[in-house]
Amino acid sequence: MLLTAVFIIGLLIGGGLGYLLGHTSPSLQSSYIDKIKSRGKLIVGTSADWPPFEYVDKNGNFAGIDIEIAKRIAQALGVQLEIKDMQFSALIEAVKNGDVDMVLADMTPTSEREKVVDFSFPYYFASKGVVVVLKNSNIAKLEDLYGKKVGVQLGTIQEDYANEYLKGKAEIKTYDKVYPDMVMVLQRGDVDAIIIGEKIANALIIKNPDLKTAFIVGKPTAGAAVALPKGATDLKVFVDKVIEDLINSGEMDQIFLNETLKWLGGS
Fold first, then answer.
1. Which of 44, 131, 179, 247: CA 20 to 30 A from 146?
2. In the prediction, which pLDDT does 30 show?
3. Residue 2: is its pLDDT beyond 70?
4. Do residues 192 and 136 touch, judged by C-beta distance below 8 A?
5. How high is the pLDDT of residue 56?
6. Which secondary structure element, helix H or strand E, spans residue 62, and what is its range?
7. 8 Å CB contact between 88 and 182
8. Residue 37 shares a structural domain with residue 115
9. How many domains does the chain have?
10. Which of 130, 153, 127, 155 is nearest to 141 (CA)?
11. Domain that holds residue 71
12. Can you tell me the distance from the alpha carbon of 183 to that of 206, in angstroms, rounded to the nearest whole number?
């Protein structure tokens, strides 16, 4: 009987130890922030073809609104910043696979994207996009696009909008880059209109006086947020705090203004 009792206690202790070893509490697990800090750098994915949010400047450096926000996050973490440039359509998979710690690429949170990644608090709000045309165009509403050629960037919510409202009614052409690719094909007459993000459209129209906004798509919603690994709670809380501080201090508005003016100035 005594041996049996000792054996059972041994199983319980061993099982409990095994459980603890295999099921470490979240507080004891290595957090996402710990991994980033131990590595000494924050790896951020972007698509550097979307000025003034992210682009390569004349000196060959990554620049733009999202790059500046990424710098603030890395600074708050006390680590170096590494930017990985890739096609926009590959960014979600990069977060999912752990190739990057987060994505900053003017990415709008959507229900589809939220199935595989988490998002921070939005750092700005805007409409789903705007339809941009040449200044002499008569396009002024959705129906005016029927029978026309419309350009959208691959993997964006603007592409989703075009597929929902224009598929079978207009010829939808996809591109990897908004600038200069989509602007160039519009100016050349290869497409009749392009659908792009509201803030990028405003900057492009200032830079290219031959363009204008035909109409706005949808009502203002979350414009962009930081895409994070699913379940990276500690990292999300940290990033949310950085964004909140930037917004409350007015620094976020200053970043948007400074980076837009810098890009328009050709720097």
1. 179
2. 59
3. no
4. no
5. 94
6. strand 62-63
7. no
8. yes
9. 2
10. 130
11. 32-125+223-264
12. 13
Nearest Cα to Cα of residue 132 among 66, 178, 65: 178
Distance CA 221, CA 129 (A): 10
Contact criterion met (CB below 8 Å) for 105 and 197: no
- Please indicate, yes or no, whether residues 214 and 242 belong to a single structural domain of this protein: no
Checking DSSP bridges between strand 41-46 and strand 102-103, what pairing results, if any?
parallel
The C-alpha atoms of residue 256 and residue 236 are separated, in whole angstroms, by: 22
Claim to verify: residue 145 and residue 96 sit in the same structural domain: no
User: What is the CB neighbour count within 10 angstroms for residue 250?
Assistant: 9
- For tokens 């990554």, the residue is 62
In a domain, 149, yes or no: yes
Q: For residue 25, is it within any domain?
A: no
- Beta strand 80-85 with 41-46 is parallel
Compute the average pLDDT of residues 141-168: 96
The DSSP H or E segment spanning 217 is: strand 211-217
Q: Which phi and psi (to 5°) does residue 118 adopt?
A: -100, 160
CA distance 42 to 74: 6
Long-range contacts of 249-256 (CB under 8 A, 24+ apart): 251/72, 252/69, 252/123, 252/124, 255/65, 255/68, 255/69, 256/65, 256/124, 256/199
Q: Is residue 24 part of a domain?
A: no
Q: Are 87 and 98 in contact (CB under 8 A)?
A: no
Taking the C-alpha atoms of residue 195 and residue 187, their distance in angstroms, rounded to an integer, is: 14
